[in-house]
């Protein structure tokens, strides 16, 4: 089955249980990084990459005894892994196990390569209730993990392409990374140097769903926020969001309403980015 078919196999609004389970498991990766890496001012030491070839999330590289080590999370099959550049990969199936058991396994393999355990790491943020209350991975996994992986893969590829297409901008695009707090995957295209609170830029990302939209959605958020009263027509197939933040949004439903998913997403991102760039830099 092609990746687009995986996306279309389950309605975007039905991915909530799969999203919460993956979001909870992703915290194990960020805890391992926080235990072993010096803190970055922007917290980027704790974020994750999406490995499209392996179809899994991976932590930042950790300094293992024999070289770089990564902690991975595959959604299908649903399993934790330690990827050691010197000795290979160790795998822990998560199905039917508690998160405490998963942390114990992870700490053992981290210590085996002279790394610090992550069990006692406190996260500097609160997780949504449906994520924070998960303590065990059920024997019967919710539908949607394969579809959720396909959404992340679609986003990662689209954002890498957009960053490459705008490689001439300076300072330019950040690496495409998944942020475990909100579980969104994004790049930030800086349009000028300076204080991040005031310097112009455009955030381009995908949330797998949150309190704003209960389904995956893509966003293009110019910074500083655009004036809601002066917005042009929204880039198709999306709409303008003006409550709490101002940005162009294309929900999963809106993307899937188009005949060609990848083409619709690419067109939406490019049109929204061009609008943001034009209005910010005029």
Percent helix, as a range, is 25-40%
How many domains is the backbone divided into?
2
Largest sheet descriptor: 7 strands, antiparallel
Helix-strand category: alpha+beta
Number of strands: 13
How would you spell out the order of helices and strands? HHEEEEEEHHHEEEEEEEHH
Q: Treating each run of at least 4 consecutive H or I residues as one helix, how many helices?
A: 7
Overall 3D form: globular
Radius of gyration: 19 Å
- Average pLDDT number: 96
How much of the sequence is in beta strands? 15-25%
Straight-line distance between termini: 45 Å
As residue ranges, the low-confidence spans are none
Explain how this protein is built.
The structure is a single chain. This protein is of the alpha+beta class and 282 residues long. The chain folds into 2 domains: 130 residues; 137 residues. Helices cover 33% and strands 22% of the residues. Strands 7, 8, 9, 10, 11, 12 and 13 form a 7-stranded antiparallel beta sheet that branches. Strands 1, 2, 3, 4, 5 and 6 form a 6-stranded antiparallel beta sheet that branches. The longest helix has 21 residues. The protein is globular.
